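Chain A, query sequence.
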Amino acid sequence: MPLMWPTRLRHQASRSRESTCAAWSLDCVTILESVSRTGRLVVVNEDYRSFGLSGEIAAKLTDVDPGMLRAPVVWVANPGVPVPYAHSPEAAVLPHQERIDMAIQRVIHR
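Chain A, predicted structure.
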């Protein structure tokens, strides 16, 4: 399930978190309102970074108004490799809190 965290750290920016369950229930208005307030978007998705819902979210944003962004969209997603069954290699591929925090820091400090 993709999660949009335009910002996460309370003292550096306002926090906004939206969750979508499927492409057909994608609430573009809520996402656009959130990005218009923060100017930032971090998309977290366990699926592949390319050709997935996370790319669709970024595409919708740029279709409406790419000028809303004060920093490039940052993805935390599977880089395009098969997901290993073993826990340790799986953790290296799938999003986890440390990768999400690093992505948020990157987008906030741009």
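The longest helix spans residues 53-64. The chain is about 40% helix and 20% strand.
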